[in-house]
Give the backbone structure.
Amino acid sequence: MKAGVMIMTIVKKHIFGAALVLLILCVAIASPLRAAQSTIAEAEGYACMGDDKSRKQTENEAYASTKRKAAENASTYIKSETQVKDMELEKDLINAYANATVKVIQVLEKGWFKDPSLGECYKLKMKAEVIPDDKSMAKLSKEESLGDDPSAPLKIRLWTDKKEYGQSEKIKIFIKGNKPFYARILYRDSRGTLLQLLPNPYRSDNYFQGAVIYEIPSGSDQFELEVNPPFGEENIIVYASSSPLGELGLKDQGPVYKVTTRAKDVGQKTRGIKILQKSDVKEKTASEFYEDTLAVKTMKK
């Protein structure tokens, strides 16, 4: 039987007599699927034609130059924002960003201009994701002392209250970061439907303090997560950043939102973060980013 999210509304009265709409989702056994740390950086670069390059070659050189600049900005940011005390771990962190992969998220500006001394030049500004080397980051992730250390790169723990859930049992999701962060939590069913659990129509605040365990649903949330058939495997996804996350297309679905942005674009749109500038810093060109996914299964007991 194929898995799927069963959305049901039920009426529940509180002490003032108003109705609360609750959401029931099919969820269960949670296990880690994928977790990744990275840095979102902005950078500007340019290249000039001279006598030996075509316009296309000049544009390609400008892209390569700007991507290198993005990697440099990310590395500089990480060095300034993280202060790992262990020398070997600090070396691993530096190596991770020295061998990083750079993916362009968005080209913010681009165009040709004429320089009096250099001639025809191509300039662009981009937002890019700088993904540190996996092997170096794997060493850091195994270091327990960095788990709750606010001086380490942003890391989010995502888990559920039990390993297994049977029919009609309710699930609780928990998140915890090692430093303050903004987060978005999504639920993806086997049909590819995406629901945004947080923020939602009743809980718009998605800023969390570090070293604090947060429970979902809780507080002003107007939904519950209850195991119902059909049973199978689905996903809980968290995106987090030290700056506000990029916007998605959303539609009210009772107490949560249905994501209308195409599934393949959700990650990139979310990574279009709004890099905030600290009051005591003249310019901020990067922000930390973290993504984690749990595979969830339902079962009949």
Residues 243 and 275 are 6 Å apart (CA to CA). The chain has a mean pLDDT of 82.
